[in-house]
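Your task
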Amino acid sequence: MAAPGPGEYFNVGSHVSCLTCLGQRLQGEVVAFDYPSKMLTLKCPASSGKPNLSDVILINLAYVSEVDIITDHTETPPPLASLNVNKLANRARTEKEDKLSQAYAISAGVSVEGQQLYQTIHKTIKDCKWQEKNIIVMDDVVISPPYQVENCKGKEGSALSHVRKIVAKHFRDLESQKSRSQAQQTQKESTLSS
């Protein structure tokens, strides 16, 4: 492959504007450019409008009809920030444990409702696990099928009370979602029959 010619390479830190084949104008700071694959990575203002965030967009230049360099950055880019490998390893381990827990629940024949409840509890209290078909929370509370508030057992106290509140709220939220869905369905049917 021949070396890139003038206008075929983008320096990290440069600001560019691209017009895609779909007519979309993308503008941002070059974060990376891979010449062999013609992939350009831009950092753009966040679509959410939050000033402390950015969107990162990968652009295949094969699908770009026009590229303008707004400002060319010719200085050597700053060194890359170091990665916190321990934090990444911990996150990967936690994600793996969560996926294994989900797989265990499925293989143990836990109902969808039980799996959903487990996920809801796990968002608030990380110390929960499966023991056959039972959900064990903080080694103090056991929730057995059919996973209702009355199925929460454990030593009376704040842990049991807190878990019962989470379970009750989970089922209230499910009911309100069902009610909204049914109301929307009824409204669609009445609109169609009119």
